[in-house]
Amino acid sequence: MSTTHHALTDTFSRIERESLAGEILGASVRFPASPALRNPVAGTLVDESLSTFTVRLAGSSRTVRVPKAGLEGTIALPSGELPLRGDTLRVRPEDRTKRLLAGGSRRHS
User: Fold this and answer.
1) Predicted confidence (pLDDT) per residue in 44-87, tens digit
2) In 3-state terms, what secondary structure has residue 14?
3) What is the pTM of this model?
4) SS3 assignment, position 7
5) Is 27 exposed, middle or buried (0-12, 13-18, 19+ CB in 10 A)?
6) From residue 40, how far is each of 21, 29, 37, 45 by CA, in Å?
7) Strand pairing partners for 48?
8) Which residues contact 29 (CB under 8 A, 6 or more apart)?
9) Angle formed at CA 50 by CA 2 and CA 61, multiple of 5 degrees
C-alpha cells in the first residue's frame, strides 16, 4: 500500500473520509493566512486539481487558485464542518473517492 493511501486513511476519521470522498465542489471553505497562504481565503470551492483548489471569493465573482501544499482550513459539508488539509488531499480529484474509501492507489497495468 502506498504512503499516500496511508496518509489519506490514517489522517481522517471514517466519517471525514466518507464525507470528503463525495462531491466537495460547491462547499464553503475557509483558509486562514498561514505560511502556505499569504492572505486568508473564504468562499465557495468551484474547482480542484491534483495540487490546487479554486475558490470563488465570498461576496464576489472573483476566483483564486490556492495551492494544496501546506494548506489548512475548514470545509462545510452536509455532514458538518470538517478540517481540510491540502497535503492529505493532494490526489487527482477523480482518484479521491477511490483512495479514501476503496483501498488506495494501486495501479493497474
Assistant:
1) 999 999 899 999 999 999 999 999 999 999 999 887 898 888 88
2) helix
3) 0.73
4) helix
5) buried
6) 25, 11, 7, 14
7) 53
8) 41, 42, 43, 44, 45, 53, 55, 73, 74, 75, 76, 84
9) 150
CATH code, residues 3-101? 2.30.30.210
The cell for 70 is: 501546506
Joined grid coordinates for residue 99: 483512495
| Residues contacting 45, CB < 8 A, separation 6+ | 24, 25, 26, 27, 28, 29, 53, 54, 55, 75
DSSP string, 63-89: EEEEE-TT-EEEEEETTEEEEEEGGGG
What is the Cα–Cα distance from 42 to 68, expressed in whole angstroms?
15
Amino acid 87 reads D
